[in-house]
Amino acid sequence: MYPNMTSLKTSSIPSIAKQSGLSLPVAIFIITIMSIIAVAVNRMNEASSQSYSQNILSSRAFYAAESGAQLRAHTVLSTAPCSCGSDVDFSFSVVGLNSCNANTSCNQFIANGDTFCTITSIGSCDNSNAQRTIEVRIK
What is residue 90's predicted lDDT score, i.e. its pLDDT? Predict the structure, then answer.
């Protein structure tokens, strides 16, 4: 009436010698894929960090060029009509513009009887790793 349990157990379970393992190759494959993903994420993070640093440096160079143009415009406009004079370099030591400088040049011309001055300011920061140029024309 009841089946023989001892014969059922031995016939349905294969012996250990007949089993072939698949878990070790799968584990190695998963570890390899995960390490490739980790390396890719690390490289993307590094590139993003460098891009962010360059963006900050470019912004600082822009503000250095703008500050140089404003300082130069103040001196140029102190005479009527505007008078350029020689090129002027500004070095900044304030917070946000430290290790930045601005090289300014000025060209004067007359159009329709009015005297105009064009100020070109080149801002650079961090040993010229970032440079921005601003040109301002004043009357």
Answer: 93
Q: What is the pLDDT of residues 18-71, one digit of tens each?
A: 666 788 888 899 999 999 999 999 999 888 888 888 888 899 999 999 999 999
**Residue 4 in 3-state DSSP?**
coil
Rounded Cα distance, 61 and 98, in Å: 10
Q: What is the mean pLDDT of the chain?
A: 85
Question: Would the CA dihedral through 91, 119, 59, 67 be positive or negative?
Answer: positive
Percent helix, percent strand, percent coil in the chain, to nearest 5? 45, 25, 25
d(CA 56, CA 96): 10
Q: Which single residue is written with the structure tokens 């130069």?
A: 72
Distances 8 to 42, 45, 78 between C-alpha atoms, Å = 55, 58, 107
Provide the 3-class DSSP secondary structure of residue 47: helix
The pTM of the whole model exceeds 0.70:
no
Which of 70, 61, 81, 71 shows the shortest CA–CA distance to 123? 61
DSSP 8-state assignment for residue 15: P
